[in-house]
Amino acid sequence: MKTRTLDQWLEYQLGTHPQAIAMGLERVRAVAERLNLLLLPCPVITVAGTNGKGSTVAYIEAIARASGHRTGAFTSPHLLRYNERIRIDGTEVSDAELVSAFEAIEAARADIALTYFEFGALAALVLFARAGLDLAILEVGLGGRLDAVNILDADIAVITTVDLDHQAYLGNDRESIGFEKAGIMRPGRPCILGEKDPPSSVLRHAYENGVYCVRAYSDYLIDRFDTHWVWREPGFSLELPYPQLQAPAQIQNAACAIAALRASSLTIAETAWAQGVASATVTGRLQRWRTDPEVILDVAHNPQSVAQLETWLQMHPKPTVAVFSALKDKDIAGMLVRLAPYIGFWHVGVMAEPADRALSVQDWQERLSAAGLPGADFRIHADVAAAYAAALAESNGQRILVFGSFHTLEAVMRLPQPEAVGV
Q1: Rounded to two decimals, what is the model's pTM?
Q2: pLDDT in tens, 41-75
Q3: Do residues 279 and 59 touch, judged by C-beta distance below 8 A?
Q4: What is the 3-state secondary structure (H, E, C) of 233-293?
């Protein structure tokens, strides 16, 4: 049989299961068992949470690598290249490595149907098992309890935050969602809780299963100063630079990462803490994409992340126009109402994909009107690219904020850019 290219493999995976999202561990665990992947030869940190997962993974990875440890990191979704999802020692894996992993999974799965995400999670484990790692870091895709990465018993679990998102799968309140995320905990092993007041469902699950929780603002503290911040626990403290990642919550994410590594068996060099915090980057998190005009990219797409974006806009006042698009199952009215005071004009782009979650022009007109946005304050464009082009043409020195979905950012990032300055 002719070898498939990476693009062909990804297209093929979209048709191997009748559902795009199929929660449950039985199928993916059976394939992993056939591949001998249920126990990696290195410690595993699994990161769940409504927001902050990708950033926390990046901090853990950067600190561990700064201390000379060889890491593997699995995250999702990607923005431009599927390869972004799997990094070994800080470098995206190659097409050839992914194809090799997919071939191994295909041979092992036989008649077991796998989703696109499950193929990716298994590919990460295949490549990590081959890589001679000191640490594997796995980001949960959706929820935790029934997410594919949860087939592995995490040595350390991390739950960054719990808030409303993906309610169709996880439940309609923080308690229900917290229960799903708490499923990554393992008896007798630590779990880092990154927010001050986690849902009682999380704490109850930990208590009932003998999980040792390390709680932010209780077991470890964060002190902020003008030029630096301090992470401290009884008998130990670190003086650290502020992260280059801009959102106010990035301090909590970095603190979560430090707590996870402090709870691990890895030895971290004294200088690596500050070096890792300072060097960690994640695409699309309040990322300055251009400077003239200033263009900011942010993947905010749920109430908690939009609140962070609101705080950042308050801290950095400047006339701003938005390039905005979001999927129909998101709280679009909530995003509009919350950010309207900081946005002078909205350029809304219609997304064609994913088709089952996209809004039509008429849908957008109804959503925008229902949110109370005056007709003079927005314009609906055929796609995100057209919305961005109009914003550039009419910016008149105003800041352009692109947000609402990973798909929104992808559409802009794929356009030819005269100047992309990075994070």
Answers
A1: 0.94
A2: 999 999 999 999 999 999 999 999 999 999 999 99
A3: no
A4: ECCEEEEECCCCCCCCCHHHHHHHHHHHHHCCCCCCCCCHHHHHHHHCCCCCCCEEEEECC
**Amino acid at residue number 214:** V
Q: Both tokens of residue 227? A: 């030029």
Distance CA 396, CA 320 (A): 10
Are 145 and 58 part of one and the same domain?
yes
Cis link prior to 354 (omega < 30° from 0)?
yes
Which are the contacts of 307, defined by CB distance < 8 A and separation ≥ 6?
A: 338
Q: Hey, what amino acid is at 14? A: L
Question: Is the same domain home to 122 and 205?
Answer: yes
- Which run of H or of E encompasses 394? helix 384-394
Contacts of residue 388, defined as CB under 8 A and 6 or more positions apart, other chains included, come to 323, 347, 349, 400, 402, 411, 412, 415
Q: Select from 183, 207, 218 the least CA-distant residue to 48.
A: 183
Domain termination site, one of 279, 295, 310? 279
Mean pLDDT, range 381-407, rounded to an integer: 96
Kindly state the percentage of the chain with pLDDT values over 90: 86
Residues 323 and 238 grouped into a single domain: no
What integer pLDDT is reported at residue 423 of this predicted model? Answer: 42
Closest CA to 401 of 347, 358, 350: 347
Distances in whole angstroms, Cα of residue 199 to Cα of each of 34, 163, 181, 185, 186: 37, 9, 10, 15, 18
Domain that holds residue 141: 6-279
Q: Do 201 and 295 belong to one domain?
A: no
Residue 98: inside a domain, yes or no? yes
State how far the alpha carbon of 363 is from the alpha carbons of 295, 328, 334, 357, in Å.
Answer: 27, 9, 16, 12
Q: What is the pLDDT of residues 123-170, one digit of tens each?
A: 999 999 999 999 999 999 999 999 999 999 999 999 999 987 777 778
Q: Give 219-259 pLDDT, tens digit per residue.
A: 999 999 999 999 999 999 999 999 999 888 999 999 999 99
Q: Could you tell me the two tokens for 117?
A: 């995400």
Say which CATH number the domain at 262 has: 3.40.1190.10
117 shares its domain with 46: yes
| Cβ atoms of 80 and 410 closer than 8 Å | yes
The amino acid present at 317, given as its one-letter code, is: P
H or E element at residue 214? strand 212-215
- Note the residue count of the chain: 423
Same-domain pairing of 76 and 113: yes
